Amino acid sequence: MSVTVRVPAKVNVQLAVGAPRPDGFHDLANVFLAVGLYDEVTVTPADALTVTCSGPDAAQVPLDTGNLAARAAIALAERHGITPDVHIHISKDIPVAGGMAGGSADAAAALVACDALWATGATRDELLAICAELGSDVPFSLVGGAALGIGRGEQLTAIDVGGTFHWVFAVADGGLSTPAVYGEFDRLTAGTDVPAPEASPALLDALHTGSTDVLAKALSNDLQPAALSLRPSLADTLAAGTGAGALAALVSGSGPTTAFLAADAEAARRIADTLRASGTCRTARVAVSPAPGATIV
Ligand code: ATP
Q1: CATH of 3-159, one of 3.20.20.80, 3.30.565.10, 1.10.238.10, 3.30.230.10
Q2: Structural domain boundaries of the chain?
Q3: CA of 188 to the centre of ligand 1 (A)
Q4: Topology of 165-289 in CATH?
Q5: Would residue 92 show up in a list of annotated catalytic residues for this protein?
Q6: Which residue lies with its CA nearest to atom 26 of ligand 1?
Q7: What's the burial of 192, exposed, middle or buried (CB within 10 Å: 0-12/13-18/19+)?
Q8: Distance between CA atoms of 260 and 242, rounded to whole angstroms?
Q9: Which residues approach ligand 1 with their CB closer than 6 A?
Q10: Active-site pick, 27, 39, 57, 137
């Protein structure tokens, strides 16, 4: 018997970053939107914990206990006195190290899959608590849809979304390390007065009403200057997408994936074609949002 869970990628439609805290983390106002690019995680009983991965970026995914999906299985097993003897297979479609929370998605998916396989009877709150221990973006991968995350981004409040948004994601060659991007943020903002992060009312309103035009004007990412500083060529990608008719363009999370909001599905296809031909990215993907969180298939 095996259990397969499908889990979406995310884009941060707002990422407001505060000054570094004494523990090194940053307070955030992080508005997550799940997008319809999915990994599928399958868990099957086995003699020992093993991980395999398939997909175009599979070679970049660790197959040891550094894999977040394996860590999720171990965390759930420990709580329930179970030995985590499962084979975890990740069918990976979410770009790796792209700022789209692919590893976090796999962790949430593995948790839901193992929970079903082992029939632990864990409550949703218990699963969310394990997610928060695994990483700041993991709880959102479990719930999907749209949500405001405060604290390190893990304290979630769901947001109702009133429409469908059409996106294009330009996938860059190579990843950017999230800690390195926060380090660059600290360097760029050193000696300045970094305001406390707050969710933008205009952005929340755009999500509620489903207005693409209002959302386009309200998108923001405080990590974008840091990502551009570490990877200046991303400015060319952003310009290529805007030139192709995107209503707005921004770096997704810590990058280097860039996100483009399109007026409709047809515009998204056109922007993706132009980006692929531009030579400024490895590939471009279209996706709609919101998307459901980790779901057993
Ligand atoms: P975030 O948006 O949450 O900052 P990301 O999308 O930038 O994350 P991930 O794809 O999650 O980045 O990968 C970051 C690193 O995590 C990878 O370079 C890889 O070494 C490691 N990793 C651990 N588990 C996984 C996994 N299941 N899938 C992908 N990467 C993983």
Answers
A1: 3.30.230.10
A2: 3-159, 165-289
A3: 24
A4: Alpha-Beta Plaits (3.30.70)
A5: no
A6: 103
A7: exposed
A8: 8
A9: 60-62, 66-69, 90, 96-104, 106, 137, 175, 178, 253-254
A10: 137
pTM beyond 0.70: yes
Two tokens, residue 65: 């206990």
Q: Which two tokens stand for residue 207?
A: 């999500």
| pLDDT tens column, 30-89 | 999 999 999 999 999 999 999 999 999 999 999 999 999 999 999 999 999 999 999 999
Q: Provide the token pair at 98.
A: 């792209």
Q: Give the model's pLDDT for residue 152.
A: 84
Fold agreement (3-159, 165-289): no
Q: Of 103-107, 177-181, 264-268, which gets the smallest average pLDDT?
A: 177-181
Percentage of the chain exceeding pLDDT 70: 100
Q: Do you know the residue count of the chain?
A: 297
pLDDT digits (tens, 9 = 90+) for 129-188: 999 999 989 999 999 999 999 988 888 999 999 999 999 999 998 889 999 999 999 999
